[in-house]
Structures are given as C-alpha cells and as structure tokens.
Write a structure and sequence with these properties.
The protein has 6 helices and 6 strands, in the order αβββαββαααβα. By secondary structure, the chain is mainly alpha-helical. α2 runs parallel beside α6. About 10% of the residues have low confidence.
C-alpha cells in the first residue's frame, strides 16, 4: 500500500471504527489502477442485483435489441410486497422499460425489478455478472430473485464503472 493509501486507510478506519455494522470499502486510483480494499470479503448485497439488471437493460439498448420505450404491463400475479410506486397501481398498468429501471433504482420497486427480470431472464442477468472484472456473485434463481446474494465491494465498483460508460455513450 502506498503512502497515500496508507493515510486514506487510516482515515476510513477512524470514521468507521465506532460505527455499528460491518463496512467494506474499495478505492481505485484510476490513473495507476492501484486498489485499496478494506474488508474485501463477500457481504450480503440485497438490492445490488438491481445494478446487474440495469446493466443488462443498458447493454441491450446499446446493442439495439431493446427499446427504452418498450412497454411492460403487470398482472395480479406480479404484485409483491415491498417498496415502490407500482404497489399502489392496479394490475394491468404498464410502464416503459426506462420507467421500470428508474422505479427499480430510485424507489427500490420490487414489481419493476421482477418485471425486468422476467423480460431479460435470469440467465442473461447472471451472464452480466460474469463479464470480465465482475466476479464473485452468487447466481440469482427464479424463486428467490432478491434474497441471499453476496458480493465484494470491488465488484460494485466495476458494475458502476460499466454503467457509467454505457450512460456516457448514450449522451
């Protein structure tokens, strides 16, 4: 660990040592590619799977195989508990793929999440997680889409960098 990272490591340790919970931190120097990983072990990731769903959607949009304006409706069978706007709307309501992504990310909408998983399939989303530099993620299953996932902090960095790149290319 270089001098800058040693000081940063000490600052992060000071900020987190008296806080409840377990922290994981990854810092990457984008010029040198040097990494600082604190507590680099798999941790429960809960809704982080939504980043991979969004990555699959953006990858399909970039490839031209998915239109952001494609509408998807939900039925009574799609209604699940949890947060989100769609919980309050009647079955038969439709939203565009882009609106579903926004609801999934900003509102943690589980109906939106499940609709996108159904649209893309668990296999495609699991393949997103296995792309270069996106490793150590448990596969999702159709029965428990949002439970029992774990990941490392560095994996989140790489998926966020991928999403930034895709969004940058669209603008």
């Amino acid at each position: 660990m270089n001098k800058d990272f040693t000081a940063l490591h000490a600052q992060i340790a000071a900020l987190t040592e008296n806080e409840p919970g377990i922290f994981a931190v990854t810092v990457i120097d984008l010029q040198s590619s040097k990494e600082l990983n604190i507590n680099a072990r798999p941790m429960r990731s809960a809704s982080l799977i939504k980043l991979f769903i969004m990555a699959e959607a953006f990858a399909r949009m970039a490839a031209g195989s998915l239109l952001p304006s494609e509408k998807i409706s939900f039925t009574e069978n799609d209604i699940v508990g949890g947060a989100g706007l769609l919980q309050q709307l009647p079955a038969g309501t439709s939203r565009t793929v882009l609106e579903l992504i926004e609801l999934m990310i900003t509102e943690s909408d589980n109906i939106a999440t499940n609709l996108l998983i159904e649209r893309f399939g668990t296999e495609a989303i699991n393949k997103q997680k296995k792309k270069p530099m996106i490793l150590s993620i448990h596969e999702i299953s159709s029965e428990r889409w949002m439970k029992n996932h774990s990941t490392k902090c560095i994996v989140v960095f790489y998926i966020l960098r991928f999403l930034f790149t895709i969004i940058y290319l669209f603008n």
